[in-house]
Specification:
Blueprint lengths: L1 H46 L35 E6 L6 E7 L2 E7 L5 E7 L4 E6 L4 E6 L3 E8 L2 E10 L4 E9 L2 E10 L2 E8 L2 E4 L10 E3 L2 E3 L9
Antiparallel strand pairs: 1-2, 1-8, 2-3, 3-4, 4-5, 5-6, 6-7, 7-8, 9-10, 10-11, 11-12, 13-14
Amino acid sequence: MKLRGLAVVIAGVLALAAALFGLATVAASEAQKDREKAAQADQAARTVGEPAAGTPAASSSSGTDGLAAPGGPPPVDPNAPITTYAGKVDGRGASIAIAVRNGQAIAYMCDGAKLEAWLQGPAGDGQLALTGKNGASVTGTHDGTVAIGTAIVAGRTFTFKVKMVQAPNGLYRIADKVAAAAVNGGWIVADGEQTGTLTVNGVSGAAPPLNTETGEVTINGVVVKPPRAQPPA
């Protein structure tokens, strides 16, 4: 009887060991399948250019090395050429000049006496939408050859059609101290004519003639060289 009981115990132990071995085998098989699935997923991710499983996704960026992303606005070129339109408004009661660069513009309109205004604003896609002080505005179009539109200055409305001009024609501006005096003014040079207004210590009048060969003008006995007007960046 003792031998029979021992045989039963041994048989039970062997059965338990077999069961545990079977479970271990199944677990190992499932783990292997999981590893194979993960490897297949990683390979598929690499094929389509996505981050592999277990690796952090690359951070997105709107550009590379400071450049605009594809489809975004182009970077502004501070050295881009300036296109300037200048001439008399319709009726020849005043002159207007418009300088355009990188989709931005600055404009000046004056009659050489009391009427004058500086304006600036967008000029992209061939459209002009400029504004200035006291309700001044310039709206219209430009195409690299001619600028056409309407200007409102000092409550008066003017229409214009002015051509693109080359240096020394164009628009000149000064805003500086000259011989201890505060000086502000502008010159429109086109078609062999000049129109300009100069304000010295708050007193305005016709601007002295600008030497188009040297770009110089004498103000309060001092020779200065007004720069060409620059559109806003």
